[in-house]
Specification:
By secondary structure, the protein is an alpha+beta fold. It is built from 23 helices and 19 strands. Helix content is 48%, strand content 15%.
């Protein structure tokens, strides 16, 4: 609970103060006070821009956090003593920001432990954690030599072209890294609060924009909050996407301040705001972000010329039109130089199975996964149509009133979405739709209010019998309900990172720092890329440096896990440490590794210097690490043993495997043929399985797969486990359920599973099983040297492996 309060309440408040103090310094230098929202956003963007520069060099990068902290503290201190009038609190933006922050925070708050969204859905946030750590400590330098997964990630991000030039925009990571370093909070636990903080900034910015159009304070808060919760951006944040939500802030701030610059003549503070926000777009979104700013600037300049000099207006409009036609023609011809300059190509689909539906730009998409079709398609597309009608109304009334901010934002969003769709690929188009969705809802909010005002005029009195204003209100409520229902579906299908796994990996990384290289025989992106970065970790099915083939010469496919017995000892001898998931079916590592540390979920094994294993005979199956070898197999294995070589064995206790698929299942539950013993859950249900225990004792209980809903396990009618929210995504991996005492003989296992309505992620497709009862894990296994006289006994024992060593 203390850690939750720290990362979700205390540190976000400190981050707000950090941004506010930094923005206050700017206000003091300009000698112009700003409202609360502007001060916080200017502070955030200044840190992003300046930090992108200070982290270029390894000489200045380590001092960035301290320097920014001192600057912010100086702003707060000087302001509090001599310029108290500069302190301004605007409650409307704060209220909208707080509502939005809580809504984005709900899944993790309901989970009850520090976590982040997007686990097993999107691995980009593991890269972002690694990059942030690198930036704050040694800047943008690339490790030499590249020797681990972490090194490879940094090389990919910071030296992504042939010339080794940095290309990935890091602006979003700077404030995140600064506050994490100043407070010492674990970045992984603060990652999701930071994204929610970004959503709060969006809502605050929307309040500022709406306040000039909507006088009703309650409506302003409601419109700003609902707009910020657009389903597509909400889904991206629940995936762990970071740039999309934060890029909305400088885009809208730039549009607002750029138009204000032209309208207010020589107001130097607005020019400064526009410049800072423009560079904020660049350092957060890269060159592609300029696509959002260009239409805003173009429309603003055209309007200024229309007022001052019509001749110049027609000339610029004509030249621009011809240039646009020429540019489109060159892009269509495949001009690589132009495409690379304006559009960062992403040829693959990333984690998007297909292109997103263009209708998702409206911010309504009730679906278990935003990549899939929505439920109740006719109703969904009706709501999308209503929302887009309000968007058009908002643009129309804005043009009529010569309020060009909203039209320019919509034009910019549409331009980027279409450009991405035709030339940028599915991945970039999805990002563009996500960024545009809250802005479209913002425009719809303006349209709702202006249309309601228009229909109240005397000129529309003939429509009074039809109560058009009531119809507008009802349609507006339907749109808002569509957004909320869409987010509710996302909430029910969010994938949360298991706190215990991250916490234990973090402790291992600290405990064994500098003692690598390290091998992880599973798809552990957060372990290899971030938590275990200080022990030079590589995961067998992840981005890595070394080729790690299995005994048959193949490599583990991406996302898969492998038993350590799958690798020949000579293959893994390079690694000084092995970090292996503790499991009942996990083999004991080779003879030349000893147990160095054992946790609840992981064991750490360390190589023993001077011990050389010539070969091993692996035994057992995927579900049972031990087996009784045939005498012929033992004889063949030992046939080439020399007199100087010794024979070693690892004896295993039997593992009791409860096949959940073998028997009657609840309605709509499915036994998975590809994974023996496992079942696929689709609705609440329960079932029983009979099993036998050969020997009285205390047994650890384990389950393979995931149970994002609520799982209860009973043995002989007595509850031995009750829990929820394990998001594994891999049926080859197990997690502990606790231990229980069992007597020899027959027993009944009862499994009950449901998905409580308010539980985050409870609707995720879950596959689990089998359940294991084991009195021993790999860390408990004793290795014994076998005398010559006892070799014939080997084909009568349950063994993990037999080894020949010097």
């Amino acid at each position: 609970m203390i850690e939750m309060i720290l990362v979700w309440a205390i540190v976000p408040i400190l981050l707000t103060l950090l941004c506010y103090g930094f923005g206050l310094v700017f206000a003091l230098l300009m000698r112009k006070s700003m409202n609360f929202t502007f001060t916080v956003i200017i502070g955030f963007l200044l840190m992003a821009v300046l930090g992108s520069l200070t982290t270029i060099s390894t000489a200045t990068a380590p001092y960035t956090a301290v320097a920014f902290g001192l600057i912010s503290a100086a702003g707060l201190l000087v302001g509090a003593i001599w310029f108290r009038s500069y302190f301004r609190i605007d409650f409307l933006p704060i209220i909208a920001g707080f509502i939005t922050y809580l809504t984005f925070a709900l899944p993790t708050l309901a989970y009850g432990r520090p976590s982040w969204q997007g686990w097993i859905k999107l691995d980009d946030n593991s890269t972002f954690l690694a990059v942030t750590d690198r930036l704050m400590n040694v800047g943008r330098s690339v490790p030499i030599p590249v020797a681990s997964t972490y090194d490879r990630v940094i090389q990919t991000m910071f030296a992504s072209d042939a010339g080794g030039h940095f290309s990935y925009p890091v602006g979003t990571f700077i404030p995140f890294g600064v506050i994490s370093k100043l407070t010492g909070v674990e970045k992984a636990w603060f990652y999701q609060p930071y994204l929610s903080f970004g959503a709060a900034l969006v809502a605050m910015m929307f309040v500022v924009i709406l306040s000039s159009r909507v006088p009703n304070r309650y409506l302003v808060v409601a419109f700003a909050s609902i707009s910020s919760l657009a389903s597509t951006i909400y889904s991206y944040v629940m995936w762990g996407g970071i740039k999309e939500i934060f890029l909305i802030v400088p885009i809208t701030f730039f549009a607002l301040t750029f138009f204000s610059t032209l309208q207010n003549g020589n107001a130097r503070e607005f020019r400064a705001y526009a410049i800072i926000s423009f560079f904020g777009i660049v350092v957060i979104g890269g060159n592609a972000g300029i696509g959002y700013a260009a239409p805003v600037m173009f429309i603003a300049v055209l309007l200024a010329l229309w007022k001052k000099n019509r001749q110049y207006f027609y000339f610029l409009a004509g030249i621009s039109g011809l240039s646009a036609v020429a540019l489109i023609a060159m892009l269509k011809s495949g001009n690589k130089m132009l495409i690379n300059l304006f559009i960062p190509l992403a040829g693959d689909v990333g984690n998007l199975w297909k292109s997103l539906n263009m209708g998702q730009i409206a911010g309504i998409w009730p679906s278990q996964d935003f990549r899939l079709d929505p439920i109740l398609k006719p109703l969904t597309f009706t709501l999308i149509g209503i929302s887009l009608f309000f968007v058009m109304a908002g643009v129309y009334f804005s043009v009529v009133k010569s309020m060009w901010l909203m039209p320019s934002l919509i034009v910019g969003c549409v331009a980027v979405v279409l450009t991405s769709y035709f030339w940028g690929g599915i991945w970039l188009t999805g990002k563009a739709i996500a960024i545009a969705s809250p802005i479209f809802l913002l425009a719809a909010s303006v349209g709702i209010y202006d249309l309601w005002l228009e229909l109240g005029k005397d000129s529309h009195r003939r429509l009074a019998p039809y109560k058009p204003r009531v119809v507008v209100i009802l349609l507006a409520v339907m749109v808002g309900a569509g957004v909320i229902v869409s987010d509710a579906y996302t909430y029910r299908n969010v994938s949360l990172a298991p706190y215990e796994q991250g916490s234990e990996l973090k402790n291992i990384g600290k405990m064994f720092a500098g003692q690598g290289p390290t091998l992880i025989p599973e798809y552990s992106v957060y372990g290899a890329r971030y938590f275990l970065r200080n022990i030079a970790a590589e995961a067998v099915s992840e981005l890595r440096v070394h080729v790690i083939p299995t005994r048959d010469g193949n490599q583990i496919p991406r996302g898969a896990a492998a038993d350590i017995d799958s690798f020949d000892p000579a293959t893994i001898d390079y690694f000084n440490l092995l970090v292996i998931r503790k499991a009942p079916n996990a083999s004991r590592p080779p003879l030349n590794y000893s147990l160095a540390w054992s946790g609840k979920l992981f064991d750490v094994w360390k190589r023993i210097p001077g011990v050389s294993v010539r070969k091993t005979l692996p035994l057992g199956t995927a579900q049972n690490p031990g087996a009784i070898p045939s005498c012929r197999a033992v004889a063949d294995f030992l046939a080439d043993r020399t007199n100087n070589e010794k024979v070693y064995t690892a004896t295993r206790n039997p593992v009791h495997v409860i096949n959940l698929a073998n028997g009657e299942l609840p309605a709509n539950w499915v036994a998975l043929a590809a994974n023996p013993g496992s079942v696929h859950y689709s609705q609440p249900g329960s079932f029983n399985r009979n099993f036998n225990i050969g020997q009285t004792g205390t047994y650890n209980m384990w389950i393979a797969g995931s149970y994002p809903g609520r799982l209860r396990v009973l043995v002989d009618g007595v509850e031995v486990f009750s829990g929820h929210s394990i998001f594994e995504g891999n049926l080859n991996l197990t997690n502990p359920l606790g231990d229980t005492s069992l007597s020899a003989g027959a027993h009944v296992l009862t499994v009950l599973y449901d998905s409580p309505r308010l539980m985050p992620g409870a609707d995720l497709a879950s596959e689990f099983g089998p359940i294991y009862f084991s009195s021993q894990t790999a860390g408990d296994v004793k290795v014994q040297q076998v005398s010559i006289s006892r070799i014939p006994e080997l084909c009568t024992q349950n063994l993990d492996w037999i080894a020949i060593a010097n």
